[in-house]
Amino acid sequence: MGKHTPLYDSHVALGAKIVDFSGWDMPLHYGSQIDEHHQVRSDAGLFDVSHMTIVDMHGGGVRPLLRLLLANNVDKLERPGKAIYTCMLNEQGGVIDDLIVYFMNKDHFRVVFNAGTRDKVLSWVREHAAKYPVEIVERDDLAMIAVQGPNARDKVHAILDEKSRHSAAGLAPFYAVQVGDLFVSRTGYTGEDGYELMVPNDQAPQIWQRLLDQGVKPCGLGARDTLRLEAGMNLYGTDMDETTTPLESGLGWTVAWEPTDRDFIGRAALEQRRDNGALPIWVGLVLTDKGVLRNHQPVYNDSGQIGEITSGSFSPTLGKAIAFARVSHDTPAHCQVEIRGRRLPTKVVKPPFVRHGKSRFNDI
Amino acid sequence: MSNVPDNLKYKQTHEWVESLNDGSVRIGITDHAQDLLGDMVYIELPEVGRKVKAGEECGVVESVKAASDLYSPISGEITAVNEALATQPETPNKDPYGEGWILCIKPDDPAELNGLMNAQAYRDLIASESH
After folding, report:
1. Which CATH class is domain A280-364?
2. Assembly ipTM
3. Right CATH for A8-45+141-230 from 3.60.10.10, 3.40.50.720, 3.30.1360.120, 3.30.310.180
4. Per-residue pLDDT tens for A127-156?
């Protein structure tokens, strides 16, 4: 038996198909992952993401520590509540994890890591934190619920008291606010508007139920994966890991090269790779034929193999198979993917595939 | 609990076989199989007229989650395929034993059907696989 979130009993009661995810017993779907996907694109869906690792860092040394640990620059965070997405790199520039860091106040940052990287990430952070006046607090006492979709924010507002609603409604994208026991963040992993809520474990089932009562449908990890794929968002361990850098994972935009004297871990290795040129690129693929693209399928041009798929699946919104692939820098606009020994034509596109419920590729 | 109709025969690779009046058989995947696979998005059908041996691959069923080969439960000639699955691959999720049928085969040797599992044997199989 794996670890259970505070919402496990609710998942079982809702008829979820439970699967192991990094040691957690999590809902894959509650009947149909495609229906759940469409629910998020058209209305609002509810996700239990309590398996993710929430860490609070307190003390005067937090900002210098994060300047060292993260490839993006926390000095971009000037207003309390503002968040950024970033990678944390090893000395070789490989990705230890991707994460969101929130600036709460001068001496307090909150970081949300993946579930599967928990142990290595905490030991890496603690090892480097030893030289700084910093207190690291794992927030196992908090559950996390994502509410995503065009109507998601309204549905959350409906269960908040007036003061909390006012604070939440005033949030710009990628900002968060603490209102009483509830941490409300205007972030997500679906390409839709919405919130991620962090709440004390004992209050999570009640908030979950109140959102269900608002008509928000529960969605599992299956829909979460196809939603993030359509939205052009990387999955750690699949699209990038310790053997790949952000530069060949479509995450170059998250690396803050300026100021040049900020010597974050992995910087020297990244600069070397960047300056050597001819790095593989990370692209989107749309299969023009019928079939489904899958992780690790090889990608070809006319002269041979040029890369492979890092994440592939079926896009419910496009009704076609889509994928991310790491391919040679001179990849043409059309290439082929080998599926069961046959090479099928695919179109190379720039992710995201879907934005705010609409396909960006109506011509495919 | 999965639906396992008493009037059908089964193969351990999770196909069901229904004997039709004209001597051919209709084949699909079981309720248990569709439940394991989840939402189906693509079904690759074989050519009508193709000869297959028992255990031979004769199609692919792809869900959002995974691709799964379809194996012919018996030897014979493929006499029909369910063309509607090309545009509605989700049909076996909704009606695995009815509208979600996949293909028909004219068996080389009708006695081969006696070697397939009955409903109780298949129920026992899926119960043992889930433990």
Report:
1. mainly beta
2. 0.88
3. 3.30.1360.120
4. 999 999 999 999 999 999 999 999 999 999
